[in-house]
Amino acid sequence: MSLAKSPWIIHVNCNSCNGCDIEVVACLTPLYDAERFGLLNIGTPKQADIMVVTGSVNYKSVNVLKNIYNQIPDPKVVLAVGACASTGGIFHDCYNVIGGVDQIIPVDAYVPGCCPKPEAIIDGVVAALSILENKKKGNIRGKEVKLKGKEVASNA
Amino acid sequence: MTTIIPFGPQHPVLPEPVSLKLEIDNDVVVGVLPSLGYVHRGLEKFIDTKDYNQTLYICERICGICSALHGVTYARAVEKLFDVEVPERAQYLRVIWGELNRIHSHLLWLGLFADGFGFESLFYECWKYRESVLDIMEMTVGNRVIHSMAKVGGTSKDLSKEHIDLILKTLDTLEPKIKDIEKVFVNNYTVKKRLVGLATMSKQLAYEAGTAGPTLRGSGNAIDVRETEDWDIYRDLDFKPVVEKDGDCYARTKVRIGELYESIKLVRNAISKLPNGEIAVPIKGSPTGEAIMRCEMPRGEVVYYVKGKGTKNLERLKIRTPTFANIPSLLLTLPGAKLADVPIIVLTIDPCISCTER
Ligand code: SF4
Q1: Domain ranges of chain A
Q2: A21 touches chain B (CB under 8 A)
């Protein structure tokens, strides 16, 4: 229970246009005040429970994404915010875009919209909370995502 | 002996991934190597497959913070190819939404900047007031961040009487709030202690490094595309560029605060002069030829180059964004700074990486 009352989130900007990012930050500011759910935005993955990803994945950010995902301790939940993170969105055809976040790491909840409203993002986080609680009960672990050796050291 | 410390791509003060390799000697930065590309999507190539109307929506998603002005600049560039005159009302509407966009962007930056030097309550304050501008946006164009109000040939939305009343009322309440924030940024002892004299650029240096926007004007260069470019509207609206002489982080902050007032004034003047009439002209045919269009974004001057080849889709779209012009100034100001000041100096150019890398 304690985990779901005070989850810490890490926000990862993968390849986004900033639209979704500023809405994620707006959730934490006084008007929407996601902190009333006990959420705390935190800079380091090692202390986070929920990973909020905005933007699609490109060939350079893919290893950053994997690296951060692997560092988050279990149980962990991944929330894809925005059309880009869910499917690649308007940019899915671009040559440097691999696609949605779920092509790389397992995603537990999606928030649609370009960009989603803060209300929708908070809704997504609340949905993520129950998933987190279930994972904890079932002792479900996230799979380690393989990194491609060398690139990791130089990129992330 | 020097040590290399990586700054980014995932860093608590950076909302966006950019990576700087800092060469450190005893807490002092001696060299900087930026590494870009984490947000590169390849939009300039992507437009090959889209027609010129669809491209506008892509341009708006280059950056979610200044999306309105990206759309307007693209539309103006394509209108130049077609050689059409946009109705006067549409031009005024573009200015109104564009300046509201600037207000939200500057408040956002002031907040992030305050967070950058650890003043969290000030961050919350700025973002709280920013919400009132986003409320206007939601009411008038239907979305908070990506506005899609410009279209080639005019605007796709119009302002009604109630909208105008709402805008004026909101600005009346916003202005005193900005005065409150200004007091803290300008007078607070700790804020001044952090910012005054940090990363100073002389007038000459800022000019020669090719910086743009508040970074350029903070060093005493009175260069603002709103004044120099032939977009006549701004001349009717009694616009004056905001300039500070000192060239340090403090001066750049003051420029942005000054621009908030300037933008509020512009919106009010534009509303008082808003003519009646059409908001868009129909456009037929396919673009040919080339055109260049410039516009003053919240972060500085953006340049759009478009080239048509007689088909529905453009042959080439090239964008020079303000942050691209401002990054070289980091390479000049960071060496010699303390490691602890690096986040502040990086934030002070108001970096928009998704614009730069597209
Ligand atoms: S979903 Fe839309 S607003 Fe969000 S990052 Fe993608 S383009 Fe930007």
Answers
A1: 8-138
A2: yes
Residue B355 maps to a domain: no
Q: What would the mean pLDDT of B340-356 be, rounded to a whole number?
A: 81
Instruction: Please check the confidence at residue B70 and state whether its pLDDT lies above 80.
Output: yes
Residue among B154, B146, B156 nearest B60 (CA): B146
Q: Taking all residues of chain B, what is their mean pLDDT, rounded to a whole number?
A: 83
Q: What number is the ipTM of this complex?
A: 0.78
Across the beta sheet with B288-297, the strand order is B288-297, B300-309, B314-320
CATH 3.40.50.620 fits A8-138, yes or no: no
**Residue A156 C-alpha to ligand 1 middle, in angstroms?**
23
Q: What is the pLDDT of residue A147?
A: 61
What is the average per-residue pLDDT within B323-338? 82
| Residue B265 structural domain | 41-326
| Gap between the Cα atoms of A9 and A126, Å rounded | 12
Residues of chain A with pLDDT under 50: 149-156
One-letter amino acid at B32 equals V
For atom 6 of ligand 1, the residue with the nearest CA is: A84
What CATH number did the domain enclosing B190 receive? 1.10.645.10
Beta bridge partners of B338: B28
Per-residue model confidence as pLDDT tens digits over B8-28: 777 766 767 777 788 888 888
Report in angstroms the alpha-carbon separations of B355 from A152, B122, B300, B324, B342: 25, 27, 12, 8, 21
Q: Which atom of ligand 1 is nearest to the CA of A90?
A: 7
Place B233 in a pLDDT band, splitting at 50, 70 and 90. Answer: confident
Nearest to B131 by CA among A27, A125, A19, A16: A27
Answer whether residue B17 is part of any domain: no
Q: Where are the alpha helices (DSSP H) in chain A?
A: 2-5, 19-28, 62-71, 82-87, 118-138, 149-155
Summarised one tens digit per residue, pLDDT across range B238-273 is: 778 888 888 888 888 888 888 889 888 888 888 888
Residue B16, in any domain of the structure: no
Q: Which residues pair with A8 in a beta bridge?
A: A40
Run of H or E including B110:
helix B88-116
Provide the domain count of chain B: 1
A99's enclosing H/E stretch is strand A97-99
CB B290 within 8 A of CB B306: yes
Q: Indicate whether B349 belongs to any domain.
A: no
Q: Which residues of A touch B177 (CB under 8 A)?
A: none
Distance, in Å, from the CA atom of A134 to the CA atom of A96, rounded to the nearest integer, reads 36
Q: How far apart are CA B356 and CA A98, in angstroms?
A: 20
- What is the A130 CA–ligand 1 centroid distance (Å)? 26
